[in-house]
Design brief:
The complex is a heterodimer of chains A (375) and B (541).
Chain A lengths: L1 H27 L11 H27 L6 H20 L12 H5 L15 H25 L4 H20 L11 E2 L3 E2 L2 E2 L3 H27 L1 H11 L1 H6 L4 H27 L1 E2 L6 H14 L5 H20 L4 H15 L3 H11 L9 H6 L4
Antiparallel strand pairs in A: 1-4, 2-3
Helix pairs in contact in A: 1-7, 2-7, 2-10, 2-11, 2-12, 3-5, 3-10, 5-10, 7-8, 7-10, 8-10, 11-12, 11-14
Chain B lengths: L2 H25 L2 H15 L3 H14 L4 H9 L3 E4 L4 E5 L5 E3 L5 E2 L8 E2 L4 H16 L4 H14 L5 H10 L3 H17 L5 H14 L2 H13 L3 H51 L6 H18 L8 H23 L8 H23 L15 E4 L2 E4 H23 L1 H11 L1 H6 L4 H24 L10 H14 L4 H22 L1 H18 L15
Classes of the chains: A mainly alpha (375), B mainly alpha (541).
């Protein structure tokens, strides 16, 4: 299955490269009357799906290959998004409602006199990009360092990741916290001097998302293919055994968790200029759980499947919330139930299994192996 | 009707009324009627000093119509006809009554009347006069309220009436309130002797509530007499300390109340998590179903049984949530038995479906669930204000806790459940049907969540999102308290509820919650299996 996955990976990259070139061409180079014309709103929508795909890929790296079901990856995504949003906010400058050259509108509105320290430097693009990587990365490092060293695993870990994003959700809602309260950051004007509203900017952001997905995939693939990746999967399947063999299990998990958080942060940073807003609802625990279902639907432990799952589920969401709004939650709920019951390996797992047509050895779940040594 | 004819008619009627007045005066005692007459006549001048004198006389002599007249004066409803020298007042309904005789003046005459002017100084003396009038009211409740009014205004004009009433007061409660009111006047008045003021301050200090505090605060700032000033300052600090103590006690009460809600919401989760090792993300929806069961019971019961609605709602909520729980276990969870992480996702899906189902059936808007009479209102206990519905929820949570302990400790099913919690494989080897225990434990845990929903319907909005608000807090309680031991859950709920409410005044509600979440995240690093973890010799998977 691994060899086929690698082949599929090349196809996946090829498709993304083609999309990165073709979509801007169809959006900018084709007349609006042509049947092949892609209107800017559609380009924007596809770009949004790609950001979700990057987030799903990040989650798959820790869930599929390390057995950590993080229900707080939405927090890393949102933090990356906030870092980008802060840069975009500072770029508005005197074009805001209150025309304050330094302070964003909401600070003027709150009667603040000077820029909080957390906002310093965000007018400088490289600094903002560094924060996109550093803030989620450091949070994951601190959180993971505590959690993995003290051997918090399984359901407990999932619950405290959820508590983490819930705490951030509450904190970012506060006006005093200094990130726009429940309105969040919005009304962005331009990125690196180019207006966000033009079709060419939307096409450029789409291509950037394609490239980011390719890089995220390549990095994850490289990690998994390495010796380190094999040890990571061994930790997933039999953590105690790896510990008894002398591996520092916590460090393996921590590395994967931090890399995954950084990828999620980058996804968030690409997401914000495309949707034009970032607010605390991105931290809502429900969002993180939804990301987990994208991975489960596509097939965890495949990377490509996670990306496909994210795009497929979000496409369905866009379609159903438009066509049958009251039935979407039933559909999403059933998707959660049916996928976990009948598609443990996801769509991609199903496809690979039917293509190979070889009866695979019944997989003994890791938890059963572990239970042999439980009380 | 032309104006001319109207005037003529009015003149006739005035003549008629003069006869009427004479008739009434024949019944009244001459002296008394004269005094009232003189007093009322002062209003006719419509000059502030005269009006003030009239107010004073009304309050001192207290004729039967005094209250109505003063009230009308304060509301600009007192009217005078200067030509015919008649004082009248308009009732709230709009009828014009003669102030002296109380008979109705026909609408056609109303044109001759004009309002008596009042200014703010007059208004405040009207208030004082009203207070002293009601001080003599035969109803002790009214007297008590009047004494409270005097305490708040501490207007020394009320002092004579107050002292008169105090001398003959028989009801001890009213007497105490009157003494307090008198103390408030003495304490604030600069003309009272130092000795009286000190005694008054001591009385106020004994009362020691918010009102007394603000009163003494004013004295300590304004008083010129050094003895009074220092007495006020020391009384103030004593009251401060006392109020702070009551404040802490009040927060403790809020904390215990919050804990009881948390305990109800979390204890079912602790059972299912303990027995099966899976977290039911749809647990909050079981709570929500319980709340909607209460709504349905109240909507369907005939009005004669409404007071007993909770007696029907609690068993119904237990059964509805329990049956739904068993259905979830049979249809979903038992197939995911070896994959606890995926159970999180599947039950989350179930929770979305249940929310949408309830939204389709009952609508997205909040539903109104009423408190039965014995659960509404509040009462004072010392300096504590205690709402009755919160008190009953605490009682309910204690009962549920005791009931579950009994089930666990005293029934064969409880024994089996504990065995499966401690060691599933060995329990199975001993012939316990673990699958049956799973199913029933899930039903029990969900049913208890349903009962929690009945309690929550009494204090929170009943909406499809009800459960979402409690689910994460419930997780925290279970994670903190550990599984397999209900005392852990109770302790976790108590600690989290208390900490939440005690942190609230210090750093705000949201900040307090965040601090607690961070604390629990750090705590679980030290004790990954909770505070009351089961001990075993095995490696933790």
């Amino acid at each position: 299955m691994s060899a086929r996955l690698d082949q599929l990976g090349i196809v996946f990259i090829a498709i993304l490269i083609i999309a990165a070139i073709l979509v801007p061409v169809l959006s900018l180079g084709v007349s609006a009357n042509s049947p092949f014309y892609l209107p800017p709103y559609l380009v924007q929508l596809l770009g949004k799906y790609l950001c979700y795909a990057i987030l799903a890929l990040a989650l798959d790296l820790v869930w599929g290959y390390c057995g950590i079901l993080s229900l707080g990856h939405g927090a890393f995504f949102a933090l990356g998004g906030y870092a980008m949003g802060m840069y975009l906010m500072r770029q508005i400058g005197t074009r805001g409602v209150y025309a304050n050259p330094i302070l964003p509108d909401f600070m003027v509105f709150l009667n603040w006199k000077e820029l909080p320290v957390a906002w310093w430097g965000f007018n400088w693009f490289p600094y903002a990009m560094a924060m996109v990587v550093l803030v989620p990365g450091l949070l994951a490092l601190a959180f993971g360092w505590f959690a993995f060293r003290s051997r918090v695993t399984g359901v407990y870990l999932s619950i405290i990741t959820q508590a983490m994003t819930f705490a951030l959700f509450k904190e970012f809602f506060r006006n005093d916290f200094g990130f726009g309260g429940n309105n969040g950051l919005t009304d962005f004007k331009d990125l690196l001097g180019f207006s966000l509203q033009t079709p060419s900017m939307k096409a450029a952001l789409f291509s950037a998302s394609c490239i980011a997905l390719i890089i995220a995939y390549a990095v994850s693939r490289a990690i998994i293919g390495s010796k380190y990746g094999k040890a990571l999967m061994a930790v997933r399947d039999a953590e105690s055994r790896m510990r008894f063999l002398g591996y520092r299990v916590a460090n393996y998990k921590l590395f994967a968790f931090v890399v995954s958080a950084i990828i999620a942060g980058i996804a968030g940073a690409l997401y914000v200029p495309q949707v034009g807003i970032i607010n605390p609802s991105e931290f809502a625990p429900g969002n993180s759980i939804e990301a987990a279902i994208w991975v489960a639907v596509g097939g965890r432990g495949t990377l490509i499947g996670a990306a496909i799952g994210a795009i497929a589920v979000n496409f369905a969401k866009t379609f159903f919330t438009g066509a049958f709004p009251e039935y979407w939650l039933y559909g999403l709920g059933l998707l959660f139930v049916l996928t976990t019951l009948f598609l443990p390996k996801g769509l991609l797992g199903l496809a690979l299994k039917t293509r190979e047509r070889q009866p695979s050895r019944p997989v003994v779940p890791a938890e059963v192996i572990e239970e042999g040594v439980e009380p | 009707m032309t104006p001319l004819r109207a005037r003529r008619l009015a003149a006739h009627l005035r003549a008629l009324r003069a006869i009427g007045i004479l008739a009434v005066m024949a019944f009244a005692t001459a002296a008394r009627a004269d005094a009232v007459d003189d007093t009322l006549a002062k209003f006719l001048d419509d000059k502030f000093p005269q009006t003030a004198a009239a107010i004073g006389e009304l309050s001192a002599e207290a004729p039967p119509q005094a209250a109505a007249v003063l009230e009308a004066l304060a509301d600009n409803r007192l009217m005078i006809d200067q030509a015919d020298r008649i004082v009248a007042y308009k009732t709230a309904a709009g009828a014009l009554l003669n102030a002296k005789t109380g008979e109705t003046i026909p609408d056609s005459n109303a044109g001759a009347f004009k309002k008596v002017r009042v200014n703010n100084a007059l208004r405040s003396s009207i208030q004082g006069a009203m207070g002293s009038l009601t001080l003599a009211n035969p109803d002790p409740e009214k007297r008590l309220a009047a004494a409270g009014d005097v305490f708040r205004t501490h207007d020394d004009k009320a002092l004579p009436a107050l002292q008169t009433q105090l001398a003959k007061e028989s009801d001890p409660r009213v007497a105490a309130a009157l003494k307090l009111a008198q103390a408030s006047i003495f304490a604030t008045s600069d003309t009272t002797s130092t000795q009286d003021r000190l005694a008054a301050i001591a009385t106020l200090k004994e009362r020691g509530d918010q009102d007394a505090q603000s009163l003494i605060d004013g004295i300590s700032q304004k008083a010129t007499d050094p003895a009074v000033k220092s007495a006020a300052a020391s009384a103030l600090s004593a009251i401060h300390a006392r109020l702070a103590l009551w404040g802490v006690a009040q927060n403790l009460w809020y904390g215990i109340s919050a804990s009881s809600v948390l305990l109800l919401a979390a204890i079912g989760l602790a059972i299912t998590f303990g027995v099966m090792g899976v977290i039911n993300m749809a647990h909050g929806e079981m709570v929500m179903l319980g709340a909607y069961s209460t709504y349905a019971v109240q909507a369907l019961l005939p009005s004669s049984l409404q007071n007993w609605s909770l007696a029907f709602a609690i068993p119904l909520a237990f059964v509805v949530a329990g049956v739904v729980g068993i259905a979830i276990e049979r249809l979903v969870i038992r197939f995911l038995y070896t994959r606890p992480l995926e159970t999180l996702l599947a039950t989350w899906g179930v929770s979305l479906i249940l929310q949408q189902l309830v939204r389709s059936m009952f609508g997205a808007a909040n539903r109104q669930v009423s408190n039965p009479p014995f659960m509404s209102g509040a009462f004072e206990l010392g300096g504590l204000s205690i709402t009755t519905n919160r008190l009953w929820i605490i009682v309910l949570s204690v009962l549920v806790f005791i009931g579950l302990q009994l089930v666990l400790r005293a029934t064969p099913f409880g024994l089996q459940m504990r065995a499966v919690t401690q060691n599933r494989r060995m329990a199975a080897s001993m012939g316990i049907s673990t699958s049956r225990v799973d199913m029933l434990a899930f039903g029990l845990g969900s049913g208890v969540a349903g009962i929690a929903g009945v309690a929550l319907s009494q204090i929170d909005n009943v909406s499809p999102n009800l459960g979402q608000g409690y689910i994460i807090d419930s997780f925290m309680v279970v994670v903190f308290g550990g599984v397999g031991n209900l005392w852990g859950t109770a302790f976790g709920a108590l600690l989290i509820g208390l900490a939440n409410k005690l942190l609230e005044p210090l750093i705000g509600a949201v900040q307090g919650q965040i601090v607690l979440l961070v604390f629990i995240i750090l705590f679980i690093q030290r004790r990954p299996r909770g505070l009351f973890a089961q001990r075993g010799r095995a490696v933790e998977a």
